[in-house]
Amino acid sequence: MSPAPRSQRRPLSTARVLEAAIRVADRGGAEAITMRRVAQELGVEAMSLYHHVPNKDAILDGAIDMVFAAIELPGTDRADWRDAIRVRAHSARAVLSRHSWALGLMDSRRDPGPATLRHHDAVLGVLRKAGFTLPMAAHAVSLIDSYIGGFVLQEANLPIATPEDVEEVAGGILAHMPADDLPYLTEMIVDHALRPGYDHTGEFAYGLDLILDALEARRRGAEPGPRDGR
Fold this sequence. Notes:
There is one protein chain. This protein has about 230 residues and is mainly alpha-helical. It has a domain at about 75-220: Tetracycline Repressor, domain 2. The protein is about 60% helix and about 0% strand. It is built from ten helices and no strands. The chain is flat. Pfam families: TetR_C_1, TetR_N.
């Protein structure tokens, strides 16, 4: 399809440049973002981008900030801080599953944008208002974000996306596996992964609840913790 006539194109803007960069990265990863490819995505010359962004680094910073802006901020109006963080975690997983390339850049950029800073401040605010000490809040953020990022990466690389995929992959493994030598793995596949209705995506909520409940127990002082985390 040929580019639309110039008179029919939407005016170029910083937001349009960043949106195009995200589409490029969604297809080819962060390394696919170049001034030339973003310009091609927009149907313009690369030089025209420089009226809106100074360089590729600015595009990367802006694209990451736009991804952060899509993640729901945790509200401070919930009676239980875990509910607020749970909503944010599920939103983050959904957004990052669509833009998994962003995981490697989110914590590596040196010039975080306003949405990124506002997001981190909101998460810390929920924890601090719930009674977490500053060190414990920092530990909690690190733990929760590591869990979200790790799960998204695992999910992106697993050869299963539907219950039918689980049945095909697990069934194939089972067919070539010496059951007598691997009784516990056989049990897990037969009685868990292959049971009707099993959905691997449900593991995210289970693990998240374990983390949140453990952090709440630590917050209440129900379990001993490192000196710098109490």
